[in-house]
Design brief:
The protein has ten helices and 14 strands. It is an alpha/beta fold. The chain folds into two domains: about 210 residues, Rossmann fold (3-Layer(aba) Sandwich); about 120 residues, no CATH class. Helix 5 packs across helix 6. The longest helix has 19 residues. The N terminus is likely disordered.
């Protein structure tokens, strides 16, 4: 689906009284650019293809090259050219930005969250055969999920390019049951003044972390009013029954309600951090970032890793975050025995009882 058609359908939904999906309104657009057989070096065609597909939209082309990422801003601010890390690069644009990622290669599969591919290829028969194989590999990597495939044909006249695309599209339709689209034709290389680019290190030498960094970009939260949960003074589990009057329930909750509670002194970030999966990202008055998870130690450690890796990106989106304080892990559990066994360890531990959170202090030191 082209960007124009996507915009028209969103407008139609609004006019017909249908709510537009929040994800499509809030999220960035990530396009994986892969290359088939081209008449000259593929890297020379990437910028022209990104400008063609992106039309006049502000976009960024990220080209992975060995252990570096080349960054080219299209139609936007040049401030990104002075960024020293990928986290700084992806923190600059506004929500809804268009990202082209090239150089990852189709062999790495289809990165999570990416459902749009631009295939850059030539028009000769070998190029058509190679392009089909690339599409076949991507479809297999998608695991049955629908992907949008746009084809840009380079180095040929429009009539030859259209004929090559018809042959490719016929093969894709017959063997894979998909419909590709001709995203554009580039008869020759763009002779315009080259756009300056900068280079930043590839995080941990992993192409997948480029996509993760883009997905980690915080978006404005739809509702940042935090639900409150008053926590009693530090209490041991045996004191729970006496603490009932010191807690505030969240709405019409019941004993079986396991929706997230927020420890006193913490509040949600003013952004959507759903990319952290099962972990809540909260902040205290001093700007310290806290990762909160209930009854899932693996998710807590995964959330800590995610938050630590993207702390610079989060701080760029929320000036209240103080990166010098690092990341604090908060483990919430309904298991009293687990709570007491974990108390005093590397995590802050809370016992959830009747929709209130009780901080579990470390055990007394033996004399």
């Amino acid at each position: 689906m082209s960007r124009t058609r996507r915009d028209i359908e969103t407008l139609a939904d609004l006019l017909m009284g249908t709510d537009a999906p929040k994800a499509s309104v809030q999220s960035d657009r990530i396009v994986l650019m892969v290359e088939g057989h081209l008449p000259v070096r593929s890297v020379l065609w990437r910028l022209a293809a990104a400008k063609l597909v992106g039309e006049d939209q502000c976009a960024t082309l990220l080209e992975i090259d060995d252990l570096e990422v080349s960054v080219t801003a299209l139609g936007g601010s040049s401030e990104r050219q002075t960024c020293g890390t990928l986290e700084h690069v992806v923190s600059e644009p506004a929500v809804g930005h268009l990202w082209f990622v090239a150089g990852a290669g189709h062999q790495v599969g289809l990165p999570r969250g990416v459902r749009e591919v631009v295939l850059l290829t030539g028009a000769d028969q070998a190029a058509v055969v190679g392009a089909y194989q690339v599409v076949k590999d991507l479809v297999r990597a998608a695991g049955g999920q629908l992907i949008e495939i746009g084809v840009v044909i380079a180095g040929s006249a429009p009539c030859q390019a259209e004929d090559a695309f018809e042959r490719l599209q016929s093969t894709i339709r017959d063997h894979l049951g998909l419909e590709a689209r001709l995203a554009g034709v580039l008869p020759k290389l763009d002779a315009d003044q080259p756009i300056p680019a900068t280079r930043v290190p590839l995080p941990e030498g992993s192409a997948s972390l480029v996509f993760e960094a883009i997905r980690a970009r915080p978006t404005p939260a739809m509702d940042v009013t935090p639900p409150t949960s008053v926590i009693p003074e530090e209490a041991h589990p045996e004191q729970m029954e006496d603490a009932g009057s010191e807690s505030v329930f969240l709405g019409e909750t019941t004993d079986e309600d396991l929706s997230p509670l927020i420890p006193e002194g913490l509040q949600p970030l003013a952004m959507d951090t759903s990319a952290a999966r099962n972990a809540q990202m909260l902040i205290n008055a001093e700007g310290g970032l806290h990762v909160v998870v209930q009854d899932d130690a693996a998710a807590l450690e995964a959330g800590r890793t995610w938050a630590t890796r993207h702390l610079t990106l989060l701080a760029a989106a929320d000036a209240a975050i103080d990166i010098t304080q690092g990341v604090t892990c908060v483990f919430v559990t309904i298991d009293v025995h687990l709570a007491t066994s974990l108390a005093g360890g590397a995590w802050e531990v809370f016992l959830r009882h009747e929709n209130r959170l009780i901080p579990i202090p470390p055990p007394p030191e033996s004399s």
